[in-house]
Fold:
Amino acid sequence: MIEPALRDRLTAVYTTWLERDDFGARYVEVLGPQGTSVTSVRQFLEELLRLSSGPNAQFRRPAALDHPDSTFMQLLASPLVTRAGPSGNVESVARQALCLAAIPRLLFEASGHQDRAEGDLQDRAELPMSSLGVGGHAFVRAIDDPDDRAGLADALMAALKSELGQRTIRSFFTVKLGGNGYRLWEPESRAPEGSGSALARHVVQTSAGGVIIDLKRYPDDEETQVRAYEWCAELREIAASALPDAVAYGMAYCFERREGMPVGGKWDLMTAADCLADVDLLQVNAFLEQHQDSESLIAAGDLVFVWLWERRHGARAGAGQACLRAALSDLRRRLRQVRTVVIDLKPYQYVVTGGSGMPTTLHIEKLEAVDRLQSFVDGLHLDEMVKGHCRYIVNRDLDDPKAAMRALGLAGLAQQGAPWLGDG
Structure:
């Protein structure tokens, strides 16, 4: 029988997972097959949508999934009808996927292999058993007794219902507004202090406020045929404000050129993009994959990528575009060969996921938001600002390290196989 102190400890850890909708995803690779399953409610919903779609659907789609303003509790109570007929309700599937299957990961975290301190994962030694209230005995690595597992799963399901039951289906596919007024931006969005070589800070005055533009060069200690730059622009209507009213962050890639043509090739570009963060590499990869004329664009000039562009909630209209335009004007003066602006076209209020992984009505809303965003950016005429082109990408991989490693590996294989631009 599981001791009450251990059950309470596991339930407390599980509750912290519920707060961020992350059921120990970081432990899946460590634990192997026993740790695999969906690792968030959103993933669980995506699986329900996938398994209830198309001619080979395994069960009838619960009505709550087609009405995103339904609550998660209403979905759990929905009947589950398979090809063979009624088979309980959705709660039974959720209990298996989000409670029983999570137990190995839960034990792994609660045993002290990793702990969350001030929002960051930090390695540490295993907690002393007295702190877990288990009498000094070796911490339980697995719960093999079926009754014990079932009892713990019931406690976890009760916590799941209490914490998330009244959330709407929609809420798992949207990004909440943070306390700072932004959905994505936070001060930590910048590269760490000491990385790269900081160039002169510029300040550009606009009708919406002053824009501070910082530029860093990477790498600064070696010869390279493609030089990467990180740029960060922040607009403040009141210069002394702690929070910016709008931000625009991104990367620029400048090629060494001979007689106007780039010396570096795809591999050099991918390597330059990999110098800072996976998201930069994946944005470059999306650009190369989604634009057949990427080679000719690079031949014509250098690239500026916009990966974060956001206006603070409540800030005056126009602050966002003023910030971006000021940044591009400044970059164009500093990096004179820039001819193409690349925008990651995603509405920040929605979680990035494929159409098959979202309720239909939400997917339609998202597509409409993308259309509005593209029309808005079209109206800014950014191509004219750089005397070249403005192109859109969709980086569906975000900052996934596995996707980044795969993209870099494929680029390396291509580098050995065929010339590209200046390669070979």
